[in-house]
Write a structure and sequence with these properties.
single chain; mainly beta; SH3 type barrels; 6-stranded antiparallel β-sheet; globular
Length: about 80
């Protein structure tokens, strides 16, 4: 279960660092994990498109463009630093 400090990746502003906590339990879970979005992995929201979709994130040493709808399925804990 996701803890109370967790938020959705899609809620983070550009330039924010976080750590992936969990995923929604749905069909997209395996796809997200195959793209490197695994629990415990640090993630940085690099850019957000002007209309808010997609997001460019830096994860596992590479850049990934992810739709906001997909980012809604990823729970993260914001990096306090």
């Amino acid at each position: 279960m996701v803890d109370e400090k967790a938020m959705r990746l899609s809620q983070l502003p550009a330039g924010t660092k976080a750590v992936i906590k969990d995923h929604e339990d749905n069909d997209l879970r395996l796809t997200l994990m195959e793209m490197g979005c695994v629990p415990g992995e640090p993630v940085w929201v690099e850019m957000i498109a002007p209309m808010g979709d997609p997001l460019a994130i830096n994860i596992a040493g590479y850049y990934l463009s992810i739709r906001k709808k997909e980012a809604d399925n990823i729970w993260v804990i914001r990096d306090p630093s």
